[in-house]
């Protein structure tokens, strides 16, 4: 039976599905990059070639009892296979077995264990010289070349469920048990190097160890996943704990919220029905490694794993605790198995994986080919579902609406005439005639002197000095030149300096619009303006009383904006020591987390509390020397936009290099909200977009120092350059 079904997360093709003589729900299956193996008719094995689907399956016989576990070796030349039943443990050379089958002879293996008991799990060491076999509460270490028991490891209080050798040390392995603990063993000394505490109320079913980062991941029968890091002395330190059912429910709520937005219902509705969630055991943990230049984003590199459960496969990013993809078997009705008892996953290519699976309640096994879409295709599909028939583009396609807040203009203040303090001269109580000087003699004004006959004579025929060409530093000239379009992102460190001698943290950074300067906001309340080459002394701007939270340069590069935890916003003219405009804590109810110039410097956009504030401002650098405390600059609030859920805003992004209506914000509730300031409302909400509250968000924008031929504008609706 061949079934094919596609969703936005991938396409599953059922390569084959076979009936068994009895239900085999908890058999250990295995796949490698070239082959898959399944127990067939109880006592036999069937090997299927993944690299050459046209090749006939290879059938192996040798066991007298039902096969309970199979496992491939780590090497590929030769490719080893180990199978176990209650009577024998047999090691097979796969290529030799294929050769014997082509010659018409009966393929045979090497018996390496006899009458050990019912074995539930097998695992080769990295060198394929030893095999661990879990039977009851004991673990047997067998020689893979001949029948020899090298060691018997005892220590668990319950039956073993899995064991894995460490990839970087073939003498160390880890085991899990129904006693809800895992143990790290030294095989040669038969000693326990580390023993975990009781992790769960349910048995631990599987374990996975990755050499990159030395990570150890275990999963339990109730869907809990523990992520440990292995130290040099093989002690394990818990990094995080993942709740797979909770992560799956969170993703489902996000999808339902998006569906409610599409249908016109409010996203805060929870519905009347109560969904009963079934148990989600972790049946297996498998690696996922994107290939170079595969089109997948960096978020998948090195820290992503497939977690197999009874109802689907889940791709999880360990670094961020995010559920990247969910392949639920029930979403593919043409598959012969929708509830798995055991499974195994191997990666063929970046977007192609194979999965061997057994049914939990039916006597059936199957092999699936799963094709994953590229990351860009998935994003486009999600946007099409979230915004059907709507246009939401960073680059506006039409002028602002007549009622748009962006049409607001600032009425300039007329200077007030000086107030009269009393009646004028000649009136009762007025000022009397009096001398306007304090000396007896006054110098003549010159009216009685004859006029000057000879005027000044201008100098002509002046030879101008030849201007010497100014010498430019090669270092600075290289920094200000056009960025090459054929090169990748910079990776080599150019300069390193300390912004403060007291090791003050840098909380915010931004390049100026022309790329010639770098603006830094420090934790000691100061703002530093460096040259982009990081040479020379920076310009220092002080005035805040608490750490900086945001800095921004204007599009004209003439103004500097800063926001602080002291609930104030200040704007300086470039090169001025005193702020031109100060907006104090009386304007905001909470600290300003993000502040920037907006709409080609027409507006000030500030995020404070749960609101985005849109201000108009008039900046005047002139001062009265006698009243320097009085500011001639002023600002006016145009509109305040609040988040749908009322959550505090942690980050904000808007484009100031050209006219754009879109403002993105991240909330403390882990949501992302898209504001359309042309309409003046929230156009889209992505709830629980991250596992933690996001601290930064940005958009693709034009850089003035990049050549025009290398600049690409991205439309968020089509996701195409």
From TrEMBL:
WD repeat positions: 153-195, 541-582
Keyword flag Lyase: no
Pfam family, one: WD40
Signal sequence segment: none
Region (Disordered), start-end ranges: 390-432
UniProt keywords, alphabetically: WD repeat
Name used for this protein in its record: WD repeat-containing protein 27 isoform X4
Species of origin: Clupea harengus
